[in-house]
Amino acid sequence: MHFLLEKTRDKVGQAEVYHLQRKVIPVEFDPEGLSVIKTKQIEGVALRVLCDGRLGYSTSTDLAHPEAIVETAVATAAYGDVTELKFPAEVIDPLDGLHHSATAELSVEQLVNLGDEIQKRLLAEGDDLEVGVSVQTTVDHVRIANTNGLDAEETRSSIQVSFEATRATSGDIFTVSDSYEARSIHEFCVDDLTKRVRRLLALGRDVAAAPSGTLPVVFTPAGTLALLLPLVMGLSGKSILLGLSPLAGKLGEVILDPRFRMVDDSRLITGSAAGSFDDEGVPTQRTTLVEDGQLRSFYYDLRTAQQAGVTSTGNGYKGGMMGGSNFRSAPTASLSNLVIDRGDASEADLIHGIKRGLLVDGVLGLGQGNLNAGDFSNNVAAAFVIEDGRIAGRVKNVMLAGNSYELLRDHVIGFGDTAGWVYGKISCPTIAVDQVSVTAK
Amino acid sequence: MRDLNGLGSMAQMNLQLAYQEATVKQTIKQAIANSSADYTEVRIERRWLNRVLFQREQLETLESATERGGVVRCLKNGGWGISVFNDPSKLAEHVHEATTMAEVVGAASSTPVILAAVPTIEDEVRVELEHDFRNVSLREKVELAMAYNTLIMGESDKIVATQVQYLDRFSEIVYANSEGTYLVQELPDITLLLGAAASDGKGDIQQGMEYVGKAGGFEWVQGMEDQARVAAQRAVSMLDAQPVSGGQHTVVLDPMLAGVFIHEAFGHFCEADFLFKNPRLADIMTLGNEFGSSELQVIDDGFIDGERGNVPYDDEGVKREKTVLVKDGRLHSLLHSRETAAKMGAQPTGNARGVSYEHEPIVRMRNTYIDNGSSSFEEMIKDVEHGIYAIAAYGGQTEFEQFSFSAAYAREIVNGEIGDLVRNVVLSGNLFETMSSIDAIGNDLGIEGGVGGCGKGGQAPLPVTTGSPHIRIRNVTIGGN
Fold first, then answer.
1. Tens digit of pLDDT for each residue in B312-325?
2. Is B16 touching A (CB cutoff 8 A)?
3. ipTM associated with this complex
4. Which of A71, A243, A368 sits opposite B199 (nearest CB)?
């Protein structure tokens, strides 16, 4: 690590080393039972350099040959982008609770027992179910050092549980799947998981005719991704710089329903993206993006912030728009944990108030449609028809289409009073909106 | 400033020299010989990658990467254990670790894994590239991407953003198992994305995209100036396109979109490991069942010269073959690993692939396409009173028999003629109904490499190709306002 910095010091203006050591133990169950246990130990470095104001970048897993890593990074800098990027020197304000050794060090036997229990409990929800389960612990040790004096390191660990319960009957197939992520195994509750599966399986037992038209739709937390994805893209400082976001120049304006509040919070340890610093060593913070429907801030990594003449919001992450830390990709502006405020309506109330509409718990084809403009267009994965305030059955082959900005500004019926985690990094309530285009076959 | 031209590749070559091939072979053979597992396999990969990405006037990314890592997979008492690592010098420890995991699984398992028998092979597959991208300097790669980027930016003042990405990757994979198979394979991969975004200045933003992806040399990404202009022009002309009206339409898919359709919606069902998890689908996917007209042929081929999906030997050491999935409209074969083949009493088809050393092999596609039929494109559209000509794909997803795809762009078909551009064309439906509604298959097969790859079970992006001639489908649901 320091050797890499030493090697570069006389060749470059600035250098930054990102070092990741990751240990993952996935334990997987197929419908027939325990199917495989893996252990993965991955270690890699990324070296970012500035030579004569030009940016260079190389990554490697071959730590035995640091001079080759330096040489490659310096070679890329010969043609690299000209930038006034400055790596941070700030001392980090450490965040507690990112590593629970009791959870991180769960034995293979304990993971097998947990997976086995979940599979048995889910199977008890119906004798016509096929259930697959995966339980895994991840321990990441991250260290970032740069030639401006920063040397920060942190261990972050978590346990992830995911499952898929499928009920197949003649002519129909219905899958309920979900994933949970927690810092500590004590935060994980098998009862919550089975309760959710039970409810969805009950709601989805009968297939109903799907409605068509412009209708109200209740999106559960898992279903809201269709609505939120355009917004996640539009709020990126990078999209603003590139001229791809319709939110450019609208800071301070009311862009969404006045009840809407959205915060990017990398210091929320229950979120999977939590850390004391981002992947560029910038201290993390809570950034209010939208409050009272008003656009308050975009999110930035170092480079985008420098170009936009603002400071980084600590959102420089490796692994693209939706994150997923690895050592390979260069950091870009990405959200950490996204938190959307709860409202005051229960999901039951929201459903009760709808004469004819849909409850959507998941969509297919995320990312389809002209997201820059806010348009989404998705087939439903799990959706239910609402008739006279009641769920009247599950629907299939239904397309949803709409514009997120318009729906979340002008057509919000209400926000649910409980929040759920989606992908371990988006905490959000049920959101009911009107005027969604619904096309059924 | 000192000319550092080509130093990147030199640094990569140094690493190559530092790596002693003979030692590797000995280490692997030794570790396998000492394994106490019933079956042991080792795959060690070295990978070199260069990426250039321009976004608007900015060189967003210029990176060069080297990776080395391995995966050990062991079978003990019918259970799998896997160990993934970067440093192959401790191979024996990883074999031991995988064996320990396998013992736990084997002890718990009621259905022991059996592997279908395959011939033992020793072989080396080296590639020769016409214009080997490893001998091309970083400077030349940057300049090429920059030239395309400049072309796109200059095509119209409505162009607000670009995404021009050059990516080359060269992998060398050593595979060995306890049955005596020992293979060394080289896999090249080169892709170029030419993306443009145009704005009307009033908040509407539309995209245009062209690309090429090959298991080939640098020559494939040169001379793409026309495609760069086309991408820019399309982004601009999409600004004037009207949104498609939602409902049921007769749709003609171009070879690119039809190829993505057959891969996403049908190909994944042919992956035998998927069927074990879904008994009802296993029923539907019974060999001999009818899926389309007698004109429908679907192939998954392990080798088409220069294509990205090529797998001379899969990651279980099984030799490539041309697998016929659908013959004359009926299901003819599935795609197998050694495990699924043994379970179903079939032959392994060479489809066990791991996306990298971080992953064990699972059943994946290679070069998957609908074979030529008899209709010309003109015949296909001439009696369509009102329909949609959907071209290229932006993305797609399937969940069981439900699928959803977006066309990159589309045109109306009115009274047998190709008409105006329309936007927001997202097709969805039930796979089996849709496949049986294909009522015309063209004679103009095109195979497309794309720039990304296929994702499954957390393994992405795996290089594959998709292909098809033009096809016509009746009654496709298209979402819209």
1. 999 999 999 999 99
2. no
3. 0.92
4. A243
